[in-house]
Write a structure and sequence with these properties.
Elements: E1 2-10, E2 16-23, E3 29-33, E4 38-45, E5 51-53, H1 61-66, E6 73-75, E7 81-82, E8 86-89, E9 92-95, E10 104-105, E11 118-122, E12 125-132, E13 143-151, E14 156-165, E15 169-170, E16 174-176, E17 178-179, E18 191-194, E19 198-199, E20 213-214, E21 226-227, H2 237-242, E22 246-250, E23 260-267, E24 272-278, E25 282-286, E26 309-314, E27 329-330, E28 336-344
Antiparallel strand pairs: 1-2, 2-3, 3-4, 4-5, 6-16, 7-10, 8-9, 11-12, 12-13, 13-14, 14-28, 15-27, 17-26, 18-21, 18-23, 19-20, 19-22, 22-25, 23-24, 24-28, 25-26
């Protein structure tokens, strides 16, 4: 496996952005940019051996600068939503930047997705680092974050996320890549299985109600494989609230922090399967309900609703304000360490 470094444009302030192209011996490719720690492209063979681009992205930086859908992005300091853009940490209230009506989404308007990360090659891994300063987007503490990307000979993209802080702060870091295992068209025929028997219902504004509900006998039951489109138009309240699927599923695992198979997706047309492993307790399944872009993507087409899906390993949304959810608070004497593995075959 080798890593080629290419220029990927300049930010408005003149800073140069880079694209890191990781190619294994089979010719499969994973491309990462240090703008937002974004996965730009993944090319893997279909059932005939032809390489297929299985993620949505842009050929140039301008697309990402205009992007409002977080394509391929590393999201943080807190991925997903925080209600009313307020948190209380060790008795002190902090007001965050609101960017989803009155709520905070994916760390705020200039969260990790909109930052230029420092980059280095260590062995066969790409290492991106960023220091989120105390008070950035309203969050307490100086948070140092490292992302380590590795692309294997067996088409596994591994992402190791570590973080440390000098002051207690909520941390919820994930990746927001949009997948289409056929490369084009919609994703309603993709067959999805989630290792989850429970999910988090949401209000109409996408904030969790605080309840943890069983998926059995609902449209949210992906405990056995089924097409994403099978139940997506049902008149269930939760599908209406999410305009489709946009919910966090509670992963089945014996111990908190165990690395488990969280999701498996199969595309009958291409024959490509994606398996996602994670140590995080939940996974947000988003059926691309609001995916849109007037800028053409890397495949020459603009993006439209439900042409891709996201599987975002995470702590539960709004967990700083939900006493019944696992704590996402990171203390100064601790380290945030999480693993995401995307396996294609």
């Amino acid at each position: 496996m080798y890593i080629e470094i290419k220029p990927f444009g300049k930010l408005p302030d003149g800073r140069a952005v880079k694209l890191f192209c990781m190619t294994n011996e089979t010719g499969a490719v994973a491309e990462i940019t240090n703008y937002g720690g974004r996965i730009v492209r993944i090319l893997v063979p279909d059932q005939s051996g032809a390489l297929v681009s299985v993620v949505k992205g842009f050929d140039a930086l301008d697309g990402y600068l205009a992007d409002t859908c977080y394509l391929g992005a590393t999201c943080g300091r807190f991925a997903n939503r925080i209600s009313n853009a307020k948190i209380i940490v060790e008795g002190e209230e902090y007001t965050l930047e609101a960017n989803n009506k009155e709520h905070s989404l994916h760390g705020g308007p200039t969260g990790f997705h909109a930052q230029l990360w420092d980059a280095a090659i260590e062995g066969e891994s790409l290492i991106l680092t960023y220091i989120s300063k105390d008070g950035e987007e309203g969050f307490p503490g100086n948070l140092k974050v490292e992302l380590a990307y590795s692309w294997s000979e067996t088409n596994e993209l591994s992402l190791e996320i570590t973080a440390t802080t000098d002051k207690t702060t909520p941390v919820n870091i994930t990746n927001h890549t949009y997948f289409n295992l056929n490369g084009c068209g919609d994703i309603l025929d993709h067959e999805l299985r989630l290792n989850a028997n429970r999910y988090l219902p949401i209000h109409a504004d996408a904030i969790p109600t605080g309840e943890i509900r069983f998926v059995k006998d609902t449209a949210f039951d992906f405990s056995t494989s089924k097409e994403i489109g099978k139940d997506i138009e049902k008149e269930e309240e939760q599908l209406v609230n999410g305009t489709g699927y946009d919910h966090c599923f509670v992963l089945d695992k014996e111990e908190f922090g165990d690395l488990v198979l969280a999701a498996e997706v199969f595309a009958p047309q291409s024959g490509i399967t994606l398996r996602l492993y994670t140590t995080l307790p939940g996974i947000q399944f988003y059926s691309g309900n609001f995916l849109n872009s007037d800028i053409s993507g890397s495949e020459g087409e603009s993006f439209k609703s439900r042409q891709a899906f996201c599987l975002e390993p995470e702590f539960f949304p709004d967990s700083p304000n939900q006493s019944g959810f696992p704590s996402c608070l990171l203390k100064s004497e601790e380290a945030f360490q999480q693993t995401l593995i995307y396996q294609f075959y």
